[in-house]
Amino acid sequence: MSQSMHRNIYEQALTVFSNCHGGTGDLPHCELFAGKEFDAPIHFFNYTTLPPGCSIGDHPHQNDQEIYILLSGTGVMTLDGKEVPVCAGSVTVNRPYGTHGLKNTGTEDMRVLVLEVGCGE
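User: That's the sequence. What structure does it adopt?
Assistant: Structure tokens below.
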């Protein structure tokens, strides 16, 4: 690998995830980069849109961390059962073996980048 990679979020074909992790609604989504494209222990780098009222249901992870970067919108991130308000510019790191979810509580689309990194790999 060890080559430069470049993609434009807005030029990627989106697929729709319905009821992601038991959440609500249809989420337009794309995998910007797959784990096999990285030299580091990165599992994926994704772009997701949550329309108003839609959510990613609370779900657990194993020995990895997910980093959520909100590009637009407002909502609530649930981290191990605790609700944390989030907005454009929020960056949230979910701990290994923790649970998390995300809900768009605003009136505009929430655009999110999600990066999953393995721990101890």
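The radius of gyration is 14 Å.
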